[in-house]
């Protein structure tokens, strides 16, 4: 008995440990049962007419397909490719998910789920199928608001995605590949993710299994509240690979509010081009660490120009919200109502200041750059040959010299400067012309990183050069 007692004791400890681990895992069954009722399947149909293959082939060849009437191939082509046959109607379908916002039938989903749809069919959890109409749809946020004619529908509770923490458990319900009301769970992997062509959304990244058909469905927290709308996945195969992205519910509800009111969405516009602050750029601007958004260009007559913004300003916070990465800024600006004022904390020439800007909206235009016929200037210190701008380009930009040639292996070459760039600033000082360029290059400090503002392909950006002592 004395030998068996320690073994029995260890067995009891092991069982207790396993029970403790099991009890610490979240229970999703009640959450799914309660909230799955408000999740819907969305199917769409898009009708399009297509020409016969014969005419389509001729169109693709630019109308250059010429076969003589007496050719033995003429009738063969007509027979197999169908010249003279009527245009055929083709129908494409897509599947997605959504969830019910109100008892009278307002439903939220993704813009890309219903984009271009001629017919939208919503299937409820009780198997009813209802025709839906689009109240409004917003491509930039990938949010669409639908309406079905019904009453006393089950609805979801809206939570607060700002309270989410990395590591929190979350649950998705949707219709992957058409399998209605499929539930998958995981954790929040990251917050504030920026994705290409989605500047106005800071996504929630999770490892929840999301597949085609989940788009537009809800992401729940453990309290059964919607904190995100499933939108995108990162995949090399078309299927789930552990990287899923959801639109924060605050962003979605802001869009829904506007769509419900007017069917469209208006966004705030600051009027600056920004770029990420790398470690090298941070050193050149005397920053302790690479945080903030670097203003590379201020658009003419924009809210930013009217407020006094300048190229080289580092935006540290917007309306008291810190800007850690450049991607943090666009969503914050976009959510500010047009006509409202915002306080922007910036760093300029190593000095902090606050600018007050009245938010507007609208894009800008860029102009091509041409060179004037002037004698080129070459600088061994940078390894770049420059010439003056022509009159039109100088009037458009107001400063700068055009890069005519970059010496291979030079400081300029290593920094990424290329022929066709326009040098606007050296070490945060404007370059007026070739003569001014020579003077400024001669005074550049050696051995440290300096910021160089260039105009490239219609927009301005900073690059960093480390000037050597070679003359």
Automatic annotation (TrEMBL):
Its main location: periplasm. Residues 256-323, 371-434 form the PDZ domain. One of its GO terms (cellular component) is periplasmic space. Keywords: Hydrolase, Periplasm, Protease, Repeat, Serine protease, Signal, Stress response. It is found in: Periplasm. Might be efficient in the degradation of transiently denatured and unfolded proteins which accumulate in the periplasm following stress conditions. This is Probable periplasmic serine endoprotease DegP-like. It comes from endosymbiont of Galathealinum brachiosum.
């Amino acid at each position: 008995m004395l030998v068996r007692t320690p073994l029995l004791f260890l067995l009891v400890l092991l069982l207790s440990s396993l029970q403790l681990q099991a009890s610490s895992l979240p229970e999703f069954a009640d959450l799914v049962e309660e909230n799955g009722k408000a999740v819907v399947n969305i199917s769409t149909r898009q009708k399009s007419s297509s020409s016969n293959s014969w005419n389509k082939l001729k169109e693709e060849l630019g109308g250059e397909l010429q076969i003589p009437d007496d050719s033995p191939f003429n009738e063969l082509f007509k027979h197999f490719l169908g010249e003279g046959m009527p245009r055929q109607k083709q129908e494409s379908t897509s599947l997605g998910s959504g969830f019910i916002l109100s008892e009278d039938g307002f439903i939220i989903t993704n813009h890309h789920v219903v984009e271009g749809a001629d017919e939208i069919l919503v299937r409820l959890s009780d198997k009813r199928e209802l025709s839906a109409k689009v109240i409004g749809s917003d491509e930039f946020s990938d949010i669409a608001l639908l309406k079905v004619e019904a009453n006393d529908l089950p609805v979801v509770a809206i939570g607060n995605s700002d309270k989410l923490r990395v590591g929190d458990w979350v649950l998705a319900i949707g219709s992957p590949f058409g399998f209605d009301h499929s539930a998958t769970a995981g954790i929040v992997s990251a917050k504030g993710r920026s994705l290409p062509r989605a500047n106005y959304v800071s996504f929630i990244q999770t490892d929840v299994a999301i597949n085609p058909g989940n788009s537009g469905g809800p992401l729940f927290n453990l309290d059964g509240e919607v904190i995100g709308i499933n939108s995108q996945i990162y995949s090399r195969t078309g299927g789930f690979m552990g990287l899923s992205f959801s639109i924060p519910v605050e962003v979605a509800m802001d869009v829904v509010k506007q769509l419900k009111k007017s069917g469209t969405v208006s966004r705030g516009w600051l009027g600056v081009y920004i770029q990420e602050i790398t470690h090298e750029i941070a050193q050149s601007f005397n920053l302790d660490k690479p945080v903030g958004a670097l203003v590379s260009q201020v658009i003419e007559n924009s809210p930013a120009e009217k407020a006094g913004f300048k190229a080289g300003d580092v935006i540290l916070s917007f309306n008291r919200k810190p800007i850690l990465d450049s991607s943090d800024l666009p969503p914050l600006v976009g959510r500010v109502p047009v006509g409202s004022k915002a306080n922007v904390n910036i760093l300029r020439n190593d000095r902090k200041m606050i600018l007050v800007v009245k938010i507007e909206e609208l894009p800008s235009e860029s102009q091509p750059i041409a060179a004037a016929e002037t004698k080129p200037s070459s600088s061994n210190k940078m390894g770049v040959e420059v010439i003056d701008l022509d009159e039109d380009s100088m009037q458009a930009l107001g400063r700068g010299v055009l890069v005519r040639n970059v010496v291979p292996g030079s400081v300029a070459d290593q920094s990424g400067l290329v022929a066709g760039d326009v040098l606007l600033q050296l070490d945060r000082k404007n370059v007026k012309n070739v003569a001014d360029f020579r003077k400024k290059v001669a005074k550049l400090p050696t051995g440290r990183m300096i910021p160089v503002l260039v105009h490239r392909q219609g927009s301005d950006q900073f690059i960093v050069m480390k000037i050597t002592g070679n003359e």
